[in-house]
Amino acid sequence: MTAFRTPVLFIHGLWLHRSSWQPWVDLFRSRGYEPVAPGWPDEPSTVEEARAQPERVANQNLKTVVEHFREVAASLPSKPILIGHSFGGLIAEKLLGEDVGIAGVAIDPAQIKGVL
């Protein structure tokens, strides 16, 4: 029988790549969690490809990106802990407010439109 491992969903900010979370994914996995760090919609699989094709993630709207991560969270075996940085922090806050996660950490989150 396999022990339950709480899922952790890492969400990166604008102009970063999902691979930027790898040291954290490794750390959380070693501590008994089940971390995932998916990319944004249409994000290339490597940093090099992302740098060569920035238009693939440019002009994403908040609704589309939030829906993408909502679907990722729904595919996990239970509600995840949400951890986001910068714009990813804003997304984590939004998803937490929609009861998508069990807890959340927003590292230097981007502000919501109209909030200084």
Strand coverage percent? 15-25%
Largest beta-sheet characterization: 4 strands, parallel
Spatial extent as radius of gyration: 14 Å
Which strand order does the major sheet show?
2-1-3-4
Query: What class, by secondary structure content?
Result: alpha/beta
Apparent shape:
globular
* The CATH class: Alpha Beta
Oligomeric status: single chain
What string, H for helix and E for strand, traces the elements in order? Answer: EHEHHEHE
What is the number of beta strands?
A: 4
Question: What is the CATH superfamily?
Answer: Alpha/Beta hydrolase fold, catalytic domain
Count of domain modules = 1
Mean pLDDT, as a whole number?
Answer: 93
Report on this model:
The protein is an alpha/beta fold and 116 residues long. It has one domain: Rossmann fold (3-Layer(aba) Sandwich), CATH 3.40.50. The chain is built from four helices and four strands. The protein has a four-stranded parallel β-sheet with strand order 2-1-3-4, sandwiched between helices. The chain starts with 6 loop residues before the first strand and ends in a 9-residue tail after the last strand. The mean pLDDT is 93.
